[in-house]
Specification:
This protein has 212 residues and is α/β, with parallel strands linked by helices. The chain has a single domain, classed as TIM Barrel (Alpha-Beta Barrel), CATH 3.20.20. The chain is built from 6 helices and 9 strands, in the order E-E-E-H-E-H-E-E-E-H-H-E-H-E-H. Strand 8 (168-173), helix 5 and strand 9 (195-197) form a beta-alpha-beta unit.
């Protein structure tokens, strides 16, 4: 059984799949407490469901792209079996993970979006850098940037771990903390070959809207 906060159908707001219709499976619980968290409602709220029940609900939306998110999905060990089953059923599966828990057991068919926590998140010490060893070319590493310090730190990690040669690298702003134009200017000034992204859903709907 897996504790599920919500399952809903919307569009991908972030990642290289931004703008595409997607089914989101949000798992309950998180081992991090980021300063800018926008899904605190997923810390504890949810209902126990079997993997078969989850698959049945996902199937209703007739959409091939599925993202497993949270909270932090990897807190629940059964999440790996859920992702494997989704892949077996022919879905294109993405995992959004905070980067503090091991990813080596995640099915290799899953696109991992690894969120490395910047200084302003207050969770930087939780980053599990060994996860970088397991990155595939189809995976993505995300940095959510709220300050110039965050930006400089992110640049250092990109260089230190040669991330641009490994996979797609995503830079986005902490919503409401850093102006998107400022981050874009920094990226252009440094000729940094990363993908800038916005949380698209926060511009389509009200930023606090759930299930989008």
């Amino acid at each position: 059984m897996i504790k599920i906060n919500e399952i809903y159908y919307s569009i991908q707001g972030e990642s290289s799949k931004a703008g595409l219709p997607c089914v989101f499976v949000r798992l309950t619980y998180c081992n991090l407490r980021c300063s800018y968290c926008d899904t605190e409602y997923a810390f504890y709220e949810g209902a126990e469901k079997s993997i078969d029940e989850i698959l049945e609900e996902v199937k209703k939306y007739k959409c091939n792209l599925v993202e497993v998110t949270g909270g932090e999905p990897l807190v629940q060990e059964e999440s790996n079996e859920l992702m494997k089953r989704l892949c077996d059923e022919g879905y294109e599966v993405m995992l959004e993970t905070g980067g503090s828990l091991p990813t080596q057991d995640v099915d290799k068919r899953v696109k991992i979006i690894l969120d490395l926590k910047c200084p302003s998140s207050k969770m930087m010490k939780k980053n599990l850098y060994s996860n970088i060893e397991y990155l595939k070319s189809t995976d993505e590493v995300k940095f959510v940037i709220g300050t110039r310090e965050d930006y400089e730190w992110s640049k250092e990690q990109v260089a230190r771990y040669e991330l641009i040669d490994k996979c797609e690298v995503l830079f986005s702003v902490v919503f409401g903390e850093l102006e998107p134009l400022q981050l874009v200017n920094w990226i252009i000034e440094d000729n940094l070959q990363v993908r800038f992204q916005l949380q698209m859903h926060k511009f389509i709907w009200e930023p606090e809207t759930k299930s989008v």
